[in-house]
Amino acid sequence: MKLLVCGGAGFIGSNFVRVRLRETDDEIVVLDKLTYAGRRENLEDVADNPRFSFHHGAIEDPAAVGSAIDGTDAVVNFAAETHVDRSIAEPDAFVTTHAQGTYVLLEAARERGVRFLQVSTDEVYGSIAEGSFSESSPLQPSSPYSATKAGADLLVASYHHTYRLETLICRGSNNYGPFQYPEKLIPLMVLNALNADRLPVYGDGLNVRNWLYVEDFDRAIGHVLEHGAAGEAYNVGGPDECPNIQVVRRILALTGNDESLIDFVADRPGHDRRYSLSSQRVRALGWEPRVRFEDGLEHTVAWYRDNSWWWEPIRSGAYRDYYQRQYGRALG
Ligand code: NAD
Ligand code: DAU
């Protein structure tokens, strides 16, 4: 297959490109705006692969989309603004990319009859105290991030219903692994711990997330693209859930630190307590997660420890954000 991978310079998209080039004969065209989270460094090891090419451009730009999509068999759309805290502070780009961007991509796919897979999130269902959400659970997003992602999902579904475009939606739980931008819980805590900086835990630290190793999500997306039924959504949950404070304690242990580095800080406004997905539908299609959280976390900590070339150029900026958030003033 020849795939257009939008947002392929980000965390999950770049790992997807790597997995597909390694495990399939796919040809891959990446279209990416290169926001703060999208980096050419994430794709450095595949840059010379003859089955890979890169277009710099935004999904909300019809000209950029038009030149990247021609000749492809399917679109996989990872392109998004992905940090909940940023969506609370500045929702603007979330609306542009998720609403207008998804619309432009859908129109280009419709004109050419190209299969379309939208990468989405468990956050569109909102928080659940007990049990798990299925694909038919109501969408009840709570942040500007998840609300705009839910809007994109509904638009994608409407293109199947109205125009019979072959669409698929994959809703993943919290991903972790190499190349994740250090604003998200795990890479932020790992890098702060490696550098003996403070670890800011929101609220009581008892919010629960369901952890999915990035390559497991990427293989699920590939599997759904190949075997999924047009018009369907597929939940993709990880094998293990864990309260934040336990994640942080485990990272401290893996980096040889003690708990005195933890700071309990003000909670995120509207903070979802727990996410949980039932993944029966994608499992029935033949996908299983391969990586348990304990092993994946150990591997992830080792990757950050061994790849300072990747994070050193950005860490000072990430640390500035963290400092500003925690202390309410800019780092000197
Ligand atoms: P990321 O922030 O690491 O990467 C996003 C990528 O999209 C970047 O390369 C960025 O440059 C690009 N991008 C942003 N706006 C764009 C635009 N308008 N046009 C073209 N490119 C643009 O994100 P991620 O964590 O890799 O998430 C990828 C997708 O997976 C997102 O759709 C996200 O909602 C979804 N998702 C993420 C998680 C998670 O835990 N990170 C879990 C489930 C689903
Ligand atoms: O569930 C899937 C979603 O997971 C994706 O759709 C999002 O793109 C992705 O960012 C992620 O959202 P979360 O809000 O769950 O991830 P984040 O890493 O920001 O936070 C995870 C948990 O850790 C959450 O309960 C908030 C808490 N947290 C986060 C940060 C950054 C802290 O306690 N301290 C922090 O500094």
Explained architecture:
With 332 residues, this protein is of the alpha/beta class. The chain folds into 2 domains: 2-175 and 212-236, NAD(P)-binding Rossmann-like Domain (Rossmann fold, 3-Layer(aba) Sandwich); 178-209 and 240-270 and 297-327, UDP-galactose 4-epimerase, domain 1, CATH 3.90.25.10. Helices cover 43% and strands 17% of the residues. It has a 7-stranded parallel beta sheet, with helices on both faces. A 3-stranded mixed beta sheet has the order 7-9-11. It starts with a strand and ends in a 5-residue tail after the last helix. Bound molecules: nicotinamide-adenine-dinucleotide and 2'deoxy-thymidine-5'-diphospho-alpha-D-glucose.
Summarize the structure.
The protein has 332 residues and is α/β, with parallel strands linked by helices.
Number of strands: 12
Largest sheet features: 7 strands, parallel
Low-confidence stretches: none
Strand order of the largest sheet: 3-2-1-4-5-6-10
CATH topology of the largest domain: Rossmann fold
Molecules bound to protein: nicotinamide-adenine-dinucleotide, 2'deoxy-thymidine-5'-diphospho-alpha-D-glucose
The appropriate CATH architecture of the largest domain is 3-Layer(aba) Sandwich
Q: How far is the N terminus from the C terminus?
A: 51 Å
Radius of gyration: 19 Å
